[in-house]
Structure formats: C-alpha cells, structure tokens
Amino acid sequence: MSDTTEVPEDECLAVWCAGDDWCAVTCAMDVIGKKWHPVIIHRLLRCDELRFNELSDEVDGITNKMLSQSLDDLEEKELVDRTIVSEKPVAVEYSLTERGRSLERVIDSLEQWGKTHLQPPESEVESA
Amino acid sequence: MSDTTEVPEDECLAVWCAGDDWCAVTCAMDVIGKKWHPVIIHRLLRCDELRFNELSDEVDGITNKMLSQSLDDLEEKELVDRTIVSEKPVAVEYSLTERGRSLERVIDSLEQWGKTHLQPPESEVESA
DNA sequence: CGGTATCCTCATTGATACTG
DNA sequence: CAGTATCAATGAGGATACCG
User: Fold this and answer.
1) Which of A57, A90, A125, B97 is most buried when burial is the number of CB atoms within 10 A of its CB?
2) What is the pLDDT of residue B80?
3) What is the arrangement of strands in the sheet containing A49-51, beginning at the earlier edge strand?
4) Chain B environment of A114 (Cβ under 8 Å)
C-alpha cells in the first residue's frame, strides 16, 4: 500500500504544476529544489536520523530559521518524519519517511553528477 | 579534449560550494536548480535542438526575459550550445552540449520521481 | 535543546515595451 | 525571429534575539 497511489487528497504537490504538460521535473524540483532541502535529505540519507542541532551542524551554513523552515516544509511534504524522543529535556529526531527515502536515486544522481562534472576541490580547497 | 578535465580555469562552479564538505548535491542544484533550467534541459533532451520561440512555446509560462536569461546562464555553464542558423532572418538554435547531455540521468531520475510520487494529473487535469 | 519572531536585504521573477 | 531594457513586486534567505 505504498507504491500504487501515493498522492493524498489534501496534497497540493501536483497542483501548481498541472499546467500544459504537467512536467514532472518541475514538480519534483519544486519539492526538493529549495535551497537547503537537497543537503538535508542527503544527510538524512546517510545518517538515518539526526537531531536538530546535529543537522544544524551537519549542513553548515544554515541558520536555525532556515533549518526549521526547511524541516517544516519537508515534513509537510511527507518527506521527513519528526520524532519526539524526549519531552523534558526537549529532544527531537528527524528521519526520512519512505517517500523521503525514495528520493535517494535523485539525490544520488545529483551528487554523482556534481562529483563528476563539477570537480571536487580536494586538491585546492585550502586556498581559501 | 572534452572528457578528461571538464573544468575550465574561469569556472566558478566549484567555488561557491567549496565550503566545509564541498557537497556535490548543493553544487549540482546550484547549476540546474534554477526555476526554469530543469524544464529547458528536459525539452532539449527530448527535442535535440530548438529555436528560441519553440523553447518559449515548449516551456509554457516562461517569459522572454527568463528564457533568455536561463539560456544565457546555461550557456555560460556550458550546458547549452547556441547556434546561429541564419543571420539575415535571425535564426538561432539551442541544443545541449556534452555536459548538458550528461544531465540526462539527473533529469530523468527527477522526472521519474515526480511521476511516481507526485502523480500526473492525467485523469483529473480538466477540473481546472 | 529546539525552535520562533522580527526585521531587513537583495536576488529572482515578471510585465511590458522596444529593437536589430 | 530573437532577444534586450526598464521597472516593479515578491518572497526567499539571513541576522539577531528571544522563548518553552
């Protein structure tokens, strides 16, 4: 029951794209194309579950606001799960949902392309 | 001389991302993550070569300015080739470069994901 | 710890009109 | 046909501070 018809009724994901040709790429980009989404997903893909601050540390450069906002959006899109681990000393853990994990191929091809065609600065990263 | 070391000296593609972890996904997104880039590349992937107006018609919703601007950016990033077909009645054709074509996997996985998880509105597209 | 709230900036996008 | 110029709007993103 998870690969036949994934789209909920309240889901508006498909709406803003349903123009002349539907365009799945544009839609997909609208979902994961936000500035911080790809990295966040990428990290979650590798670490399985992370706390807010761990994520904040992992992503590097992201502000609380953007992390929170991105996570919020990702949750709303059912790509990320938010789990309260502890109430008293507030502790929350973020992980990918099934749907989120399904993005692995996308993120992976993106990463692959980046590594192949953008050239990692492994040998000249210390110049800055 | 086109598949050994693809990165030109003036190329700043790798620069803005060379932070703490390099992050290929973020870099890749910076290249193709612009609003219209994915669709344009997608069309070019399917049509091989298109004129400015054909593209303008294909993309649907894009303005001259954005198309021109996107194409310009794509050219600068060496993803798209601009070929002047005719001088007098100005005619230009756009096509993907090798590098641009290398994005096929990315665009494809993006499209695949979109189609699988965002559900094309084929059966309810006429409600609007 | 895990966020929110506020304010501010500037980049992206768009509409419209004009041109070689 | 294939753009460019200009102006304006929008909103994404960032800095900082505060909260339960």
Assistant:
1) B97
2) 97
3) A49-51, A91-96, A80-86
4) 23-28, 31
